[in-house]
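LOG
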Amino acid sequence: MAKRNIINIDQDKCNGCKLCIPNCPEGAIQVIDGKARLVSDLFCDGLGACLGHCPKGAITIEEREAEAYNETKVMENVIKHGTNTIKAHLEHLESHGEDKYLKEALMYLKKQGVKDPRGDKGSAGHDHNHEGGCPGSKIMNFVRHGKTPAASSAHKEESELGNWPIQINLVPPHAPYLNGADLLISADCVPFAYPGFHSELLKGKVVLVGCPKLDDIAKYSDKIKAMLKDNDVKSVTYAHMEVPCCFGFIGVIEEAIVASGKAIPFTEVMIGIKGDRLK
């Protein structure tokens, strides 16, 4: 058991305005029965991106003891808010591809004698075509089969993207596609500048995208450390532009590898602003 920061929503102050919803990158907050609810501790990073958007001051950061990704503890809180919150939580786990935690949640409900509020859909198993959760952060793992030869002689480029989401802010540290992955961390200008991005850099890799100049590098540092520590990442490649601001990620990645306690191979690829591969 360790202490960590996590948001707290004062239900008496909350007026259900929804202004906090689009500012929660992990999609941990939903408005249910007219009130903002933290539907899962699992996805709250405690960094407070939603804090300044609440006009009633209902959202605060508190430090409390929380077991890392303990679904049983999460369900103990969720079940208190009733059927709608339970349903939202289960759909939230399902939309993020967290099958392991979904099974734990359903097991907890069974022990408590509570039916799956998703009804036939829930009992049928994992139907991922529901409308719950944030579509922009729904975790997807694309299986790309053998390429079909093009009908014409013209060469057709095909995407090598195999995971979603790709923005570092939106990817939870325990996203299932991270385990066993060759990880490509790309500065977000690289795919625009380098014509061989898909065929040479992305193929066979899980990609994360961010900007070391415009984004919160401290937040990225914490998330990448957690990703490398909690998953069996086979290798890390960092693709960046030749401009000075892009080099900020190198130290972050190297520090994260050291913090993981693992000997993870690290490769750096540098792209020139004219699209040539420099390193």
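LOG (cont.) second protein
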Amino acid sequence: MTPLLAAWHRYVLSEQVTPQVNGRSVLLGDHTHVVKDGGRMPSVVSLRETSETQQKPSYFRGQCWGALGLIVGSVRACFCLPLELRLHQGFVHRGEPAPANPASRATLGERMVEMALTFAYQHELLTWLVLDAFFASAKVFQIARSLWRLTDQQPYVHVLMRAKKNYVGYYPAPAKPPGRPGAQATYGDKVHLYECFDHRPLFESIECQVYGQSEIVQVMSENLLWRPLGDYVRFIWAVTSRGPIVLMSSDLTLSPATAIELYCLRTRIELMFSVLKTLL
């Protein structure tokens, strides 16, 4: 980390304008693609635009920036303050050697959670990292759980993100009957996440803030085994005025109302990108 970046982090935290959610500050992470016309500019690669909020062609030449922002103000009236932006693609163009094994190359999701983990560890700060469905991978959960603050036995970073529509969870397998040969099974009944919306009697009604508006939301939560991770993940189902959504959290005690309000903050990073690109 450069001295200038470290000084910026210290200044932001010294102002004490970061709200706390369950004793943690809130970080937002995402990627933004910047179109570049220069043929020999560093880190300019061919990119595919998939975001619905960007007015770019499907394929173009540009740079991929990973951005980490901190929620400041209050949870209900907040702004995403940029903490750090790094190039996340095109390292070979800058003279950095490629790894011998391509499989060992860090993915975009891994680089994003590593940025958050470095910030939280250096400042001894417990944080939430809110991401979209692009980052929903086992590696992101593994890296987030890899570093704990020993004083209170909690991971520095808890991640919260939207689950993809084809994801499934598992209940733990029932105990093996005595005397049956073979090992104890790990995974029991399979749960197709988005099929759970067909069972509305299992949901309960709560009132929470959805994008700044108070409304009644149908929710359900369950800790299920997620096979790519090989461990438990908290899944939260919600039916809001904007449609159904399934969230995933590494915090197995997170309440549905808090999860929904946290995920609704993710749009603030899109406003941050707009300010950086258009206003500044």
